[in-house]
Design a protein that fits this description.
It contains 5 helices and 4 strands, in the order H-H-E-H-E-H-E-H-E. It has a single domain, classed as Recoverin, domain 1 (Orthogonal Bundle), CATH 1.10.238. The protein is mostly helical. The strands form 2 sheets. It has a two-stranded antiparallel ribbon with strand order 1-4. A two-stranded antiparallel ribbon has the order 2-3. The two termini are 13 Å apart. The protein is globular, with a radius of gyration of 14 Å. The longest helix has 18 residues. The structure holds calcium ion (3 copies).
Length: 117
């Protein structure tokens, strides 16, 4: 599950990098540092949520406050999108998006201490 969360984060990094017209690259130390803001070598819930909140804004290309399937096509497949779209309106609100990524975080946090290391 730790791998899963890192894949999700990596896809967000790619999307953010492309949106910023930087060259997408493998997740490197600089990108890990963007997640690990206080540089204690672990990613805590608030760090992850802050990153994913900014990723949501970046992914929301038409700035309507929700994500359509074409905006997250590179991030979520159809089944993942449907699983994330809790109210089934065909769009992901910020709450729906964060609920999913934070559930991923909790699943990956096997020790239950609120940190990923
Ligand atoms: Ca940290
Ligand atoms: Ca949108
Ligand atoms: Ca929805």
């Amino acid at each position: 599950m730790k791998k899963l969360i890192l894949v999700t984060a990596f896809a967000c990094f790619q999307a953010v990098a492309v949106a910023a017209q930087n060259q997408p690259a493998a997740m490197n130390q600089g990108q890990m540092d963007r997640l690990d803001r206080n540089r204690n070598g672990a990613i805590d819930q608030s760090e992850y949520q802050a990153f994913m909140t900014s990723a949501f804004v970046t992914l929301d290309k038409n700035k309507d406050g929700s994500l359509r399937s074409e905006e997250v096509g590179q991030l979520l497949n159809k089944q993942q999108f449907a699983a994330t779209d809790a109210n089934r309106d065909g769009q992901l609100s910020q709450n729906e998006f964060l609920n999913r990524v934070m559930a991923d975080f909790k699943a990956a946090d096997r020790s239950g201490d609120g940190n990923l290391q």
